[in-house]
Amino acid sequence: MSAPHPRLSLRLSLMLGLLVAAAGAGIALADHHSNPWLLSWIQPSCCVTNDCCWEVSERDLRPLDGDRWEVLATSQVVPRTDWTPDGKFYRCACDLSGGKWIKHQGANTRCIFVPLRSAGY
After folding, report:
1. Which tens digit of pLDDT belongs to each residue from 26-70?
2. d(Cα 89, Cα 87) in Å, to the nearest integer?
3. Does the pLDDT value for residue 16 go beyond 60?
4. pLDDT mean over 83-103
5. Cα 114 to Cα 121: distance, rounded to the nearest angstrom
6. How far apart are CA 47 and CA 111, in angstroms?
7. 3-state SS of the chain: helix, strand, coil percent to 5?
8. Which run of H or of E encompasses 31?
């Protein structure tokens, strides 16, 4: 059996190195996240990687027609982003201030996740 072509070997080594680095970054991010489980199902575009998503009470949101939700703290009306896998409500909201993402009740809401309910909701 002949040895692999040097270029192919280099490409494979680079790809493996990138995969290891990406996995390591994911582990490091999860180690510093207040709720690493959220990283497994909330899209990064919702600001979850900046620790900007948290569980909220159902009373913090008001359902509207067309699967839209009013965030009572800000009066924002946003469409449901997706369903939650655990039956709880989540809001992703942060503002960029001084180069850091700040999570707070008055922040701009990026995403809303709600539990799937029966037709009687």
Report:
1. 444 445 678 899 999 999 999 888 899 999 999 999 999 999 999
2. 7
3. no
4. 93
5. 12
6. 9
7. 35, 30, 35
8. helix 6-31
Structural domain spans, the chain? 1-32, 36-114
Half-sphere exposure of 7 (CA within 13 A, CB side): 0
Name the token pair of 4.
């692999």
Amino acid at 66: G
Spatial distance between the Cα atoms of 70 and 19, rounded to a whole number of angstroms: 40
User: Quick check: 112 and 47 in contact, CB under 8 A?
Assistant: no
3-class secondary structure, 81 = coil
d(CA 5, CA 35): 45
**Residue pointed to by tokens 């280099």:** 10
The β-bridge partners of 61 are 71
Which residue is listed with tokens 């159902």? 58
